Amino acid sequence: MIEIAVYLSSTEQFLCLQIKGVIKTASPCPICRDEYLVLDKKNTKLLEQFICPHSGEILDTMKTGLCQHQHKTLTIEIMKAWDEGAIEVTLPFRTYDYEDYKK
């Protein structure tokens, strides 16, 4: 059996860019690395890549590789898109056994 190891950065960066827009780390996050990649509520194709297809939750920074600043911006833009209806919110269907609640 072959095992494949996935190495993730153990320390999450707060911000990849300096004030003047210069990259300050050796491995910036994907959003900071590409200046033409903009997180916006209208860019639904990009935002949907950071949402888990099974649970509908926003993926954490260890899975996405984003810095904390861009992850906060991503969370805000996804919530704006959910509020406006640009991205469909999937809620799990829960079944209850009402026999447990009867006296």
Detailed description of the structure:
By secondary structure, this protein is mainly alpha-helical. It has helices at 30-33, 44-48, 61-64, 68-84. The chain has a domain at 30-90: Ribosomal protein S18 (30s Ribosomal Protein S18). It is built from four helices and no strands. The longest helix is centred in the last third of the chain and has 17 residues, at 68-84.
Instruction: Give the CATH architecture of the domain at 30-90.
Output: Irregular
Low-confidence stretches: 1-10
Q: Please describe the biggest sheet, giving its number of strands, its sense, and whether it closes into a barrel.
A: none
What would you call the structural class? Answer: mainly alpha
Report Rg. 18 Å
**Number of helices, where a helix is a run of at least 4 consecutive DSSP H or I residues:** 4
Shape: elongated
GO molecular function, one term: structural constituent of ribosome
Pfam families: Ribosomal_S18
Subcellular location: Mitochondrion
Keywords: Mitochondrion, Phosphoprotein, Ribonucleoprotein, Ribosomal protein, Transit peptide
